[in-house]
## 1
Amino acid sequence: MIQALLPMIGDIAGGWIKGKAEEKAAASKARVAKAEAEAEVMKVAATHEASWEKIMAQGSNESWKDEAWTVCFIVIISMCFIPHTQPYVARGFEVLSTTPDWFQWAVYASIAASFGLRGMKGLKK
């Protein structure tokens, strides 16, 4: 009787081991699929980012705003070194500090866009 049960026990144990192996293989395939999907998302994001940068670079060919901001900064910095204009610079910054937050952020965004910084991350660092 034991000899009759041994093949059945072997089949049950073999089936259980095979099931566990298939379960592990399926979990591994799921992890690989998830990693591949995440890699594809990152690839698409990088492609879109490069496309955006190209469009912005082409758009800035005809724009003068970055030159305007550069001239503005040069004038402000120069005025800081001319004694009789220093009070005007100081007073100007005092007045700018009293403007609403939304206006200050709009100025930051305008400057960031002009110099090619995407988003406000570049200004916050």
## 2
Amino acid sequence: MNFLFVALGGALGSVLRYFLSLVIPKVAGFPWPTFVANVLGCLCIGIFSGLFLKCDFLSPNLKLFLVTGFCGGFTTFSTFANENLALLQSGKIGMFIAYALTSFVLGVAACAGGIYLMGYNR
């Protein structure tokens, strides 16, 4: 049954990520759709994690659906890695550095912000 919760959440996250790729344009070669999906996904996983840390009455199945499934399907590390490689191969070193560093820094900050928004302090 756990696989079903992960699969349903993953399907929803994947469809939302695909939607972002349709509505958010790449500007000057910067992969905005993946960047936005990853930062939003980090915020979501922070919010969900904070919620589950704070509210022990929530179902473990809901956690599988939201954290493992939805966030796993929505965020895109493999795409992120591939886009970084493409930037390097095309000689766009500055854009590679900007994309990699801002994704990492904003991702960690968004995750921490989500946990903070849920009122949980580690």
